[in-house]
């Protein structure tokens, strides 16, 4: 099934994928290939029974899921994740266009809960100078005592990673989430090609920054500065590639703004007050379940206004 929108998303991901190889090595592409094959085979099983063709969306789902993983994630863990995402977050709802939850985030959340060690403590050093990972299969593992991701370092030892590292990507983390600059480049491509709705990208950012600013001003512990919070973890990546997904987001224009604002607010609340260092995947899935209700609520409000003015 040909889907022009999915091809545009893949095009925007090229700089991020190249950056991931530079930062973490060629295992990035191998892991992505393994996940994509597993994702396609999983969808093929369902489509064969339905006598339908495989959608190009499953490739995008597989690539996005791969980019949310640490480069050293075992292949078998990644395979279990994508099978769960495609089968239980997409196909059981009727396939592409009918799913309530984002399949890639559902897959990531599933293995985060089931196999937390591989996604919370096993990180690799991000290359900082050319040729970087272009000459390596995989970059060296991070010392669990002295090194970690920016969010973990902040919570565990109060160490704040420099904004320059967060912007250019030479910080430990998931393969596609470390470089704010490359993610923003992908966002620009998506906006110029009219692939995403800018309201779904801007509104969560506003909600995140506003909530983070309030918590910082009142002196709440573990509340990072808004800029640091945006560039660390997976929030920026999610804002561009997951929150903007039209299938799981509301359709009403005003509903999209509320949806995004709440995702940004919930994310920072989970990060600061929850036991999880990263909260964006939970906040997106939570709001995925409320998207239809928000749509209905705004439609009812519109009807009531029309009745009053009639």
UniProtKB/TrEMBL annotation:
It comes from the Bacteria. One of its GO terms (biological process) is transmembrane transport. It holds the Pfam family NQR2_RnfD_RnfE. The keyword Protease does not apply. Keywords: Flavoprotein, FMN, Membrane, Phosphoprotein, Translocase, Transmembrane, Transmembrane helix, Transport. InterPro entries: NqrB/RnfD (IPR004338), RnfD_bac (IPR011303). The chain crosses the membrane at residues 29-46, 58-89, 175-193, 200-220, 226-244, 256-274, 280-298. GO terms for cellular component: plasma membrane. PANTHER family: ELECTRON TRANSPORT COMPLEX PROTEIN RNFD, NA(+)-TRANSLOCATING NADH-QUINONE REDUCTASE SUBUNIT B. NCBIfam families: rnfD. This is RnfABCDGE type electron transport complex subunit D. It comes from Alkaliphilus serpentinus.
